[in-house]
Amino acid sequence: PMRIDFRAVNLELAADFRDFVEEHVQTALGRLDQHVRSVLVQIRDVNGPKGGNDIHCHIELTMPYGSPLLVEESNSTPANALNKALHRLKPALLRRVDAHKNHHTHS
Predict the structure, then answer these.
(1) Which ranges of the chain have pLDDT less than 50?
(2) Long-range pairs of 5-9 with CB within 8 A, sequence gap ≥ 24
């Protein structure tokens, strides 16, 4: 099963935000989760109280093959930053899985 780690840096988030992260990661990956060992989601407040698009979401996905997949996005809220990052993560993961499949069926 896929492991999901979540860290918040310089940020006070609601206690249930971890559940929100896990739910969204699982929904975003869907059946692709079988290709994933672990997911690290780190959400950090870059500017502190100054405001602006300073919530940075870093997702690192570890697979049984290849190097980790990294996606980063910034937005004004943790939820938006997470969703934008996940939106980019799925196509990147699909490309990686397809490349792996093709590499192994043609060799």
Answers:
(1) none
(2) 5/38, 5/39, 5/40, 5/41, 6/40, 6/41, 6/42, 6/43, 7/40, 7/41, 7/42, 7/43, 8/42, 8/43, 8/44, 8/78, 9/42, 9/43, 9/44, 9/45
